[in-house]
Amino acid sequence: MQSVTAEEQTVEQLQSRLKALQAELQSTQAALAKAEQEKQLSNAKLEELSRAEPTLEPDNKIRFGHLKVGGAIRANYAVGDYPETGGASRSFDDGGNFALDTFRINLDYENGPYLGKLEYRWYNGYNFLHTGWLGYQFDENRQIQVGVNRVPFGPGPYGVSQSWFFDQHYYLGLSDDMDLGVKYHQSTDNWDWDVAYYVSDEGSYTGSSHQSARYSYDVVNESGDGYEERNQFNLRGIRHFQHGEIGTDLGFSLQYSQLKSRGSQDDGHHYALSGHMLNKWQAFTLATQLTYYRFDVDRNQPLGTNKLVQMGAYDFPSTTAAEAWLPAISLSYRYDTDQLPWLDYVMPYVEYSVLLKQEHDFNDSALATVGAAWASGNWYIYTDLSASNGNEFIGGDDPFGDRLGANQNDDWQTRFNINFGYYF
Question: Where are the annotated coiled coils located (predicted)?
Fold first, then answer.
């Protein structure tokens, strides 16, 4: 009997040990699953932040202590529905036009928790500051930036777009918009939060226009007695989900700003609300966004109506509908070309966005793009075929400056574009 009891005790001890090992195994599996999810989310965020620049370029920037110096030079070929000139034009019949596009200098500073970025760009006939801020990294999840920095609005730094042309949000100042102020970012396990206050837009620099020599689109005071952006507030929240192989970033963006009158008209204001989502499955990315915005302006402004607002960038002013809905969608696929020594990856994409204007006398403005981005070391090349019935950079027969406003011609035009970028 004593021998049986000893065997039973041994079995019970083994069973107890087995249960403990099973519990440890389940705990370890849960921890590994959580770590893998966090890794996938981290990789998704990293890809999103770097996708519009060469993600595989070597870190060969010149270093001066804590300061890195780099830049880029880009050239552009364009051909499309443009008037014939008999010279170097972009017309199909003239064979298109190849010209220097951009030269830029980048400074990146990092010294412990202290950060800073500066970017200045030169184009043909005008130049401007793109970025200029100093920051502090509290820890891996919290950061603050003060200066000219990117406004937190939309699913990522470039909205839903992967293309060289962006989507229509950009031309409304609602993606990749730079303004002067302070921005605070905080990440948790499942959320990214951004809160920002901007005292003004990024300013105008050297060019032929009065206030439009700048990188991103803002309300501009071209007449001297129009409106200027002041006291803008932004809030963005993005929730991260993981369902098997599908990662989802579901978010919202809010924006409100004052429009300071420099003439006899009353002050105005502007607000925008947006819902957006990124879905990632393997190498596919589906980005969707729906935005409503309104500029509340006085009909006594220099434009003579409260249905339009004056905006500008790249040294060209234009008019924009004061109120509209803006849906946008983009589907892309990243293919890593490990079998090709001369190419790192190619990313084909298809995009569509449309400005649905609330003024019934205005025609809507759509933009559709099919293209691909090609990365090879320091080279990053865009090849895009775009069609639009209301974008200032697609086609040349319609009157410039009205296409996001009344868009009276409502004429579909096309442009094929190749942008060659070398980053150093």
Answer: 4-52
